Amino acid sequence: MDVIITADIGGTQIRVAVYPANGIKPLRQKRIPTKGKDPAHVRLTGLIAELMHPDENALAIAAAAPGPTDPKLGLVLNAPNIPGWTNLPLAQMLHDQFHLPVYLGNDANVAALGEWRFGAGKGHHDLIYFTISTGIGGGVISDDRLLLGQRGLATELGHVTVDPNGPVCGCGHRGHIEAFSSGTAIARFVAGQLAQGRASTLTAIPQPNAHDVSVAADAGDELAIEALERAGKYMGIAIANYLHIFNPSIVVLGGGVSHSGGHFFIPMRQSLKESVFSPGYLENLTLTTAELGDDMGLLGALALAQTYLNIS
Amino acid sequence: MDVIITADIGGTQIRVAVYPANGIKPLRQKRIPTKGKDPAHVRLTGLIAELMHPDENALAIAAAAPGPTDPKLGLVLNAPNIPGWTNLPLAQMLHDQFHLPVYLGNDANVAALGEWRFGAGKGHHDLIYFTISTGIGGGVISDDRLLLGQRGLATELGHVTVDPNGPVCGCGHRGHIEAFSSGTAIARFVAGQLAQGRASTLTAIPQPNAHDVSVAADAGDELAIEALERAGKYMGIAIANYLHIFNPSIVVLGGGVSHSGGHFFIPMRQSLKESVFSPGYLENLTLTTAELGDDMGLLGALALAQTYLNIS
User: Chain A 77-106, CB below 8 Å of chain B: which residues?
Assistant: First the structure.
């Protein structure tokens, strides 16, 4: 039986699954913590070896890596939460050990491929995927192809300036959309307001995160509602920009903040509508949330391998 | 002899040229004013008919249209300077008359194709082209393909928000890069400063345009220098955003403002460098001006036809 080995490498856990080459139900899978006695790459290769089966014909290994990767050279450029993973030639390392083709992508790009092939974006040719969680990442399918750029560094959709006088982003630059609408940005806005003595039920929580803010908003907390509305409003401006840039037929939102409900989505849709400069961009446009959930990395890596292997 | 008929349709003039199918030197060409006794589409078809030759085998007609087009349906959606050209089925009209394949693109997209195939971008796989003139338009080649989006409305690179509190754009929305760095924006900034009583040699010119500002800057006028520096600074921010989005190996600048020299380019390069969030985006990056000059529309249309016809 032809199979594809997929890995979803995160800062907290490494997951590996074995899929039939043309299927989407895993034959078996396992997850382990990323950090342990051995370095992460040793843990990863050990887990792959453990899940491979001599009776099966593995066609390829595909992996979703956290942070920027160079998919053409097979490098993990920088995985901030994994010590030593800087300019790591992961594809070569896996190839040397398993003698298989290795396909590598960053998590957001791979998620975009997964949603396009198996999830909310099925049947679309032009898709934008955003993950809105600690940071904001993205992936773009244009005319049935993943947009990569010369080194695979394209579609860093969180790192575009929406206000040069805005707050400082996690990357150190001012006014990126990530600095307005990510989970971190929402929490930071609330912390700033609380520090100024703003009344809120969130004062009861030490260092409230975006999920806490979402819960408080649902309970009617005014500051929490304002924080989500602000994040949603800027996200709407950013999405409008990306409609002008990519003219997609579907925008898919994933990541924790995408579960924040109407306090985020209603102002987002409103500012999106107000910010689009020609109504043609909203025609035939689907705006929806991601469908693949927890398996997005594994299924995305599967989509990556199937795409390279021309399996339809 | 196999030939390709190309047309460059502008608000002021219509140009038509006949090229050898695999060449870039026109066999013959002619230009006429866009406005005349007959409607523009009649003038266009008349000029094509005049330049076609019965001894030649025309493979296709390719046209660059001003303003948004739907290249898939062959529609000119809106050509602001040509009366009646709204949702005009130009490709169908030309096909009905000449019984040839017709390829249509907006002027900025077609220019991007031309620069990529014949001009500054030869040999690159990932290119961004900006035209900075009255407005700001753009075109993107990603992995050797023109980025179009679902309806061909992608890469409206002038209409992205760089400051939600910025000046109003020609499209009516606030803070687009076009509202900071286009020729119109430069002239408007100067007009605003002059109205506030600012001293400048430009007071001698009624309604100075961006070219006047550029000339004054070269002569040392402080207001003119400030106007170009401001435009350049914001353009640098926008280009950095687009590097994060597309990770190209070359950025090509065309349009009148791209001739403004160091008063525009030095601050642009400076803010670009400051705004890029990872040095990888500047590696192997060429930043240059367009090469095709006045023939960009005709050569771009030729590139469009050759691309569709798989002529290399």
Answer: 77
Does residue A242 contact residue A185 with C-beta atoms inside 8 Å?
no
User: Is the pTM above the cut of 0.90?
Assistant: yes
Contact B247 A150 (CB under 8 A): yes
Distance CA B145, CA B125 (A): 8
CATH of B123-290, one of 3.10.450.50, 3.40.47.10, 3.30.420.40, 3.40.30.10: 3.30.420.40
Greatest Cα pair distance, chain B, in angstroms, is 65
Query: Would you say A77 and B280 are in contact if contact means Cβ atoms under 8 Å apart?
Result: yes
Contact A153 B280 (CB under 8 A): yes
Q: Please answer yes or no on whether A150 and B280 come within 8 Å at the CB atom.
A: no
Closest CA in chain B for residue A278: B171
Ramachandran angles phi, psi of B256, nearest 5°: -55, -45
| Lookup: tokens for B36 | 């005349």
Tell me, yes or no, if A241 comes closer than 8 A to chain B by beta carbon. Answer: yes
Q: Which fold has domain A2-112+294-308?
A: Nucleotidyltransferase; domain 5 (3.30.420)
Which of A143, A150, A159 shows the shortest C-beta gap to B145? A143
A174-217: pLDDT as tens digits: 999 999 999 999 999 999 999 999 999 999 999 999 999 999 99
Q: What is the interface pTM, i.e. ipTM, of the complex? A: 0.94
A122-290 is a CATH 3.30.420.40 domain: yes
- Pinpoint the residues of chain B covered by CATH 3.30.420.40: 2-112+294-308, 123-290
The tens digit of pLDDT for each residue in B258-275 reads: 999 999 999 999 999 999
